[in-house]
Amino acid sequence: MTATATSAPASSPPGFGPLLREWRQRRRLSQLDLAMDADISTRHLSYVETGRATPSRAMVLHLAEQLEVPLRERNALLTAAGYAPLYPERTLDDPALQVAKQMVERLLKAHEPHPALAVDRHWNMLAHNQQVLLLMQGIAPELTQPPVNVMRVSLHPQGVAPRIVNLLGWREHLFERLRRQIAISADPVLVALLQELQAYPVPDGADAHEHIPANAVAVPLQLRTPAGVLSFLSTTTVFGTPVDVTLSEVSRSKPSSPPTTSPPRRCVT
Q1: 161 and 141 Cβ atoms separated by less than 8 Å
Q2: What is the number of other CB atoms lying within 10 angstroms of the CB of residue 42?
Q3: 175-187 pLDDT per residue, tens
């Protein structure tokens, strides 16, 4: 007689109630808090979370709006509640996004002669202007293989990190940006990326710099070059009211003021 292995049944995806409760807890809201924000009764919200009441499509979207759930996850909530996803997801090369793509490319081109690039939700580079290539000269070839992750390129010991004067401040700023994204989206890919970046060694001789807030409007960045130290103010912009998952996750990062050449100095925010 031979023994046969039996596989455990695949776990079914969580229903709408548990997903809603997870997002509410992630936002640190009680049922009373969310019920008041959504202008519904606490009892009804409790019934929805426990599955005793089935929310309408409009209620799903209303609660997601109150919780500031990203568009990608709003689609997941709709699916869990038994409704079709509302927000389309297409690549930036999709003909339907041609106008948006052209706008992104024009913005990047208009920022020349200063570097600017567009990234997706995982900080993979989607587009860039010519000056970005100059900043990436000299980094390890494997870091330039698509998809190019700008966080990895920025902090990898064989990337741009050895040339960043205010590396410690810049490094901690990027970590805080990722922590904030993770808190908002709970994206496991970002969790893994943060863990990877935190494991990178800091080059010898890196100077301590003042703290850079994660929500800073303009972030100082200083790069060593053969011509001296280039000082930038880096900013990030996003689409204000997107109705497409892809557009909601596109960000544009750029130096917001002309770089100046100066000797290495402490970075002050």
Answers
A1: no
A2: 14
A3: 998 998 898 888 9
